Amino acid sequence: MARAMKTRTAKRGGSPRGVATPRRKEHQGWPVRRAGGLRILESRALGKLGWLVHGFSTRPGGESVLDGKPTLNLGFTDWDERARVEKNRAAFAAALGARKMPLVALRQFHSDVIYVPSAPAASPEDAPRADALATRAWGFLLGIQTADCVPILLADTRQRAVAAIHAGWRGTLARIAVKALGRMRMEFGTKPADVVAAIGPSIGRCCYEVGAEVAQAFAMQFPPAADWFDGPFEQLSHGEEPLWLPWLTMMPPGHVPPPPRVQLDLRAANRWQLMDAGVPESQIDVSDLCTACRTDLLFSYRREGAKTGRMMAVIGVRAAKK
After folding, report:
1. What is the pLDDT of residue 14?
2. Closest Cα to residue 94, out of 298, 314, 299, 311?
3. pTM of the model
4. For residue 4, is it within any domain?
5. Once rounded to an integer, what is the mean pLDDT over residues 81-86?
6. Which residues contact 161 (CB under 8 A, 6 or more apart)?
7. Residue 82, domain CATH
8. CB 314 within 8 A of CB 141
9. Average pLDDT for residues 5-20, to the nearest whole number?
């Protein structure tokens, strides 16, 4: 029987606005699996574990069409046809060598809810509302969708339990990765020292602008938060917003600069949280691909708006050989 657990929710601030101008093209060093016209990113750390299947989807290929190009959209978006998305999901599983492993997906809502399935849902409409999945059952895939947020996959090498986590800024603030690790400990006896983690492509520090409300929330929660931000973090985190009031700028209407903002590194924040929870640094594999910089390869809601697709990060325990 599947179980969902709601944990304490952190205070929610306003939604951040805008995308910073990219300062660089980020390079990624993860292996790429090419199969069926698709390209799938794989973590080297998880790839060493022969008992599991995993992969991070990319944009090219697929049945969907976006900007006149074949696109592997794996989310049920308004602009795409459900039948195409279902074909894309089947093609993705086949490219992973997991054609016979059904998918467990979620209706995500930037929470810290963790769902523990024992079997796939009967249909996508029955998908639970949550932002992380964990299981020790074999024979199906756990999948989370992203288009800028951080996808995190966990594997317990001793208990052979796995988790898939969706961490935006709200989920990161609520420590969803650490809570998923704690749920694995409660359900399966997982010890952090036995866990291998892969943090996949997401919007990078180079492009992810957030406002004072996010800076202040992170400063209150995490002692090393200043290390994860570029820009006037100290001023904004203490409630000081220099020159944002129109009457202080002495500029005519329509020429007032926007309120000051900072740039946040969500991957670094989640990496630190996992390390702080006891996962060895050497067992955390982090992609340096930025979704907003690399819209040729990845989807970015911040860069492209509502008419973009969804990627998927999946992980599952292979069926035992008979």
Report:
1. 37
2. 314
3. 0.89
4. no
5. 97
6. 134, 135, 136, 155, 184, 187, 188, 190, 317
7. 3.60.140.10
8. yes
9. 42
